[in-house]
Amino acid sequence: MNFAPHSSLREAEVNDTGCSGSIALEEWLRWGCVSPVPAMVNEIIRDLKLLENNIDAHMVFGGNGGKLQGDFKVQEDKKHREKYLALGDSDKKFQFFSARQIACRLLGSRGYLCQKCWLPMEDCMCSKVEPCSLWNGIRFWLYMHPKDFLRQNNTGKLLWQVFGVQAAILCLYGISEDEEIMWNAFKDAGKARVCCLYPNQNIAPKTAQDAFSSQSSADLECTHSLTNRDRPLNFVLIDGTWSNSAAMFRRLKEQAKFVWGEEDLPCISLAVGASAMHKLRPQPSWDHTCTAAAAIGVLAELQLLPEYSSYGLDKQAEAVEDALIVLLEALTARRLRMGRSITRKIQLQ
After folding, report:
1. Among candidates 63, 93, 57, 99, which has minimal Cα distance to 75?
2. Is the keyword S-adenosyl-L-methionine assigned to this protein (predicted)?
3. At what angle do helices 313-337 and 291-303 cross, to 10 degrees?
């Protein structure tokens, strides 16, 4: 399908001539995913395609969020609300909500966004991002809200662009296939090797240096886990708006209680300031930061500990910082070209 590069509306591309359009595994993986194609996502896409054929109206999307527009949206709203209400189980409703968000974003982004950097094709920044190997004692998990999936100014995507999809793994919130992969890895690693980068208000804040300095027997256990090559420490980065992050953290705690019998998930807070992205996307307060900056922060703090200073974590942090600057420059250039402001009002608490 052809469309004007800066058009606010675009028709969906469904790579299927019949009624059963769906996302193939190869395409799903190209967007940065590692799981099988979620069954509910493909079910929703098939329903959308069937509706499109039945009412003889094209799927049209607008803006950056893959939002349906026009007459098709009116008809689809009725259909998806009926289906949502028919789902009796609250968890099924939640999964349906997540899958529909992702399905619409996928369809609205086909042929429009680069599948690696999630920027419009004409603004692709992939050639400017330098890959770097992450020390194999660490693995990042990007626990991403569906509304941040394929979002152009999302910074979590930079981690797998730089480190690769097996070192920085995408897990979509509410997608059972993704969450199963993540929690199976956590079960195998053990609770001592799982840590969430989130300011847990229920316990005293702990920095990365507090958690991993080998000053106590408890810390020694974490230290051992961090230096065990076969079982890296798993850092969970909650990748969503601050308004959505509380629900995401709550879901993590509920699953932790189911797996380990207790709700408390090991958490660390980082002493980081505003990232470069703050110029375009201010956070609710100066002590909040973007996902990529959180990863930079934990790598930088661990580098200061003598027992981890030989793993090049500072260089790995610099690689993410460089990618963050590349993203900022790409987004800034796009906004200037489109005549949009390159600054945002600071959001106050």
Report:
1. 57
2. yes
3. 160
The 3-class secondary structure across the chain, one letter per residue, is CCCCCCCCEEECCCCCCCCCCCCCHHHHHHCCCCCCCCHHHHHHHHHHHHHHHHHCCCCEEECCCCEECHHHHHHHHHHHHHHHHHCCCHHHHHHHHHHHHHHHHHHHHCCCECCCCCCEHHHCCHHHCCCCCCCCCEEEEEEECHHHCCCCCCCCHHHHHHHCCCCEEEEECCCHHHHHHHHHHHHHHCHHHEEEECCCCCCCCCCHHHHHCCCCHHHHHHHHHHHCCCCCEEEEEEECCHHHHHHHHHHHHHHHHHHHCCCCCCEECCCCCCCHHHHCCCCCCCCCCCHHHHHHHHHHHHHCCHHHCCCCHHHHHHHHHHHHHHHHHHHHHHHHHCCCCCCCCCCCC
How far apart CA 205 and CA 343 sit, in angstroms, is: 32
pLDDT grade for 220, boundaries at 50, 70 and 90: very low
Distance CA 178, CA 180 (A): 5
Rounded-to-integer distance, Cα 295 and Cα 159, Å: 8
pLDDT at 206: 77
CA 26, CA 109: separation in Å to the nearest integer? 16
Model confidence over 176-200: pLDDT tens digits? 999 999 999 999 999 989 999 987 6
Contact 190, 266 (CB under 8 A): no
Question: What residue type is assigned to position 147 of the chain?
Answer: K
**Cα separations in angstroms, 308 against 14, 71, 224:** 48, 58, 12
Q: In what order do the strands lie in the sheet with 67-68?
A: 9-11, 60-62, 67-68
